[in-house]
C-alpha cells in the first residue's frame, strides 16, 4: 500500500468550496481569541493567502465582515487592525458549542422540535438569516417554512428569534413523534444521511496523512497552521448536516465517532505550532509560504 505523505493532501490540494469570509471567521475563532490585541489586517491577508486567496479577495472579505458588524476597523498609524465585536464573539461561542459538542454526548432524550415560520415577504433578509441559523443549530427542512430537529432546541431558538425580531412570525412545538415510522419519515425528508456518511469517510481520509507522529514531525509551523485550520473549517459543516441521532435509532452505521475522535486529537496535537505561526505572522515576522506548494483560487499552482 502506498504511503501518503503529509505534503500530498491539504497542503497541496487545490481548496474547493472555501470562501475567504468563512475562512477568516474560522481563523479568528481558532487563534485570534488567544490575544487581547486587535488583529493586524496585513497578517490576516497573509494567512488567507496561504490558502490560495489573493490580496484583493482577502481584503474584500475583511471589509465585508466589518460592514456586517462582526469586525471593528481600527487605524494605528498607517496600519489597519480589526477588533472582534460582541456579535462575532457570540457567533464564535455558538460555533464552538456546535463543533466541539458534536458526538461528545450521544444520549438522546427522544424530544423533537418542530418550527414553522410565516415571515412576510418584505422581511426576506430576516427569513434567510433565520434559515442560516436553523441549519447552524442542526435543523433540517421538511417542507416550505417547516423545520425539524431531533432535540429540544426551545432555549436556543428563543435567543435566535429575539436576535432576528421574529417572535411573532414563528411557532414551535417540542414533543415526540407518534410512531417509529413517523420518525424515519422525518429523518429521510430533512437530512441526506447517505451524503453525511460519505462526508465523514472523506474527512477521515483527509486527516489520515497527519495522524502519525512521524508525519506531524515533518510539518513546519506554517504547515501545522494550514492543516489544523483546514481541519476545523471542514469539520464545522458536520453539525449542520448531522441530526445528532444515535446510530441504534437510525439503524445504520457510520464513522461519526471515528471522525470526531480524529478531529479532536489533531486539533490538540497541532495547537502549539499552529498558534505559534499565527502569532509570528501577526507580529510581522512570519515568512511567506513557498510558491510551489500552494494554489490559486482556480486550482492552478502558484
Question: Explain this structure to me?
Answer:
The protein has 302 residues and is of the alpha+beta class. It has a domain at 6-88 and 192-293. Helix content is 51%, strand content 11%. It is built from 14 helices and 7 strands. The chain has helices at 20-30, 41-49, 55-67, 86-101, 124-136, 154-164, 180-190, 193-207, 213-217, 221-235, 238-241, 247-250, 256-269, 271-282, and strands at 39-40, 71-76, 79-84, 112-117, 140-143, 146-149, 170-175. The strands form 2 sheets. A 4-stranded antiparallel β-sheet has the order 5-6-4-7. A 3-stranded antiparallel β-sheet has the order 1-3-2. A hairpin with a 2-residue loop joins strand 5 (140-143) and strand 6. Helix 5 runs antiparallel to helix 6 (154-164) and helix 8 (193-207) packs parallel to helix 13. The longest helix has 16 residues, at 86-101. It starts with 19 loop residues before the first helix and ends in a 20-residue tail after the last helix. Mean pLDDT is 84; it is low at 1-8 and 289-302.
Distance between the termini: 30 Å
Largest sheet: 4 strands, antiparallel
Query: What is the CA-atom radius of gyration, in angstroms?
Result: 21 Å
Q: Strand fraction band?
A: 5-15%
Number of strands: 7
Order of helices and strands: HEHHEEHEHEEHEHHHHHHHH
What sort of overall outline do the alpha carbons produce when their principal axes are compared? globular
Rounded average pLDDT: 84
Structural class: alpha+beta
Bin the helical content.
Answer: 40-55%
Main-sheet strand order equals 5-6-4-7
Low-confidence spans: 1-8, 289-302
Number of helices: 14
Amino acid at each position: 500500500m502506498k504511503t501518503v505523505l503529509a505534503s500530498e493532501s491539504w497542503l497541496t490540494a487545490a481548496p474547493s468550496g472555501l470562501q475567504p469570509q468563512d475562512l477568516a471567521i474560522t481563523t479568528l475563532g481558532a487563534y485570534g481569541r488567544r490575544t487581547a490585541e486587535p488583529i493586524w489586517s496585513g497578517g490576516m491577508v497573509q494567512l488567507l493567502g496561504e490558502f490560495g486567496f489573493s490580496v484583493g479577495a482577502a481584503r474584500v472579505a475583511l471589509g465585508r465582515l466589518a460592514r456586517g458588524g462582526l469586525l471593528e476597523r481600527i487605524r494605528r498609524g498607517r496600519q489597519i487592525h480589526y477588533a472582534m465585536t460582541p456579535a462575532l464573539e457570540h457567533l464564535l461561542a455558538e460555533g464552538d458549542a456546535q463543533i466541539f459538542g458534536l458526538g461528545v454526548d450521544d444520549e438522546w432524550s427522544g424530544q423533537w422540535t418542530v418550527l414553522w415560520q410565516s415571515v412576510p415577504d418584505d422581511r426576506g433578509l430576516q427569513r434567510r438569516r433565520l434559515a442560516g441559523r436553523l441549519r447552524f443549530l442542526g435543523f433540517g427542512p421538511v417542507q416550505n417554512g417547516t423545520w425539524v430537529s431531533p432535540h429540544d432546541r426551545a432555549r436556543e431558538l428563543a435567543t435566535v428569534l429575539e436576535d432576528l425580531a421574529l417572535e411573532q412570525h414563528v411557532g414551535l412545538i417540542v414533543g415526540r413523534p407518534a410512531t417509529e415510522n413517523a420518525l424515519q419519515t422525518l429523518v429521510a425528508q430533512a437530512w441526506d444521511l447517505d451524503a453525511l456518511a460519505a462526508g465523514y469517510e472523506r474527512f477521515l481520509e483527509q486527516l489520515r496523512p497527519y495522524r502519525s507522529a512521524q508525519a506531524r514531525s515533518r510539518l513546519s509551523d506554517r504547515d501545522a497552521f494550514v492543516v489544523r485550520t483546514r481541519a476545523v473549517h471542514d469539520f464545522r459543516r458536520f453539525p449542520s448536516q448531522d441530526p445528532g441521532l444515535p446510530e441504534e435509532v437510525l439503524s445504520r452505521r457510520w464513522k461519526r465517532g471515528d471522525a470526531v475522535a480524529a478531529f479532536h486529537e489533531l486539533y490538540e496535537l497541532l495547537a502549539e505550532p499552529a498558534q505559534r505561526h499565527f502569532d509570528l505572522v501577526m507580529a510581522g515576522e512570519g515568512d511567506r509560504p513557498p510558491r510551489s506548494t500552494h494554489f490559486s483560487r482556480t486550482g492552478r499552482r502558484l
